[in-house]
Write a structure and sequence with these properties.
Length: 100
Amino acid sequence: MEGIEADPYEQQLQAVFDDCDVEHQGSLDHIGLLQLCSTLQLDQDQAEQLLGCIPKTKGRVTFPQFREGLLKLLNGSSGSKDSDCMKLSLGRGDSPGRVL
């Protein structure tokens, strides 16, 4: 992505993700993910759906993994029939960048 100007909403989402990365590892553990979901004002069901969609590497999630999971939920596509991903309805018709 270097050389390509990032979407301002994605930059905001990255900043919130980074704020939850208190260990500065470039990834979040389960507690950090829960904090991020709370910061984004996702309710418990939405957070559980999101956490079920994100592939974890050694129990941690990177920003690209989180972003892709969030976009899948917001777009209502899981990429797999067997996935726990379900359509995330924010009830406001917001675009993915307006979650913040």
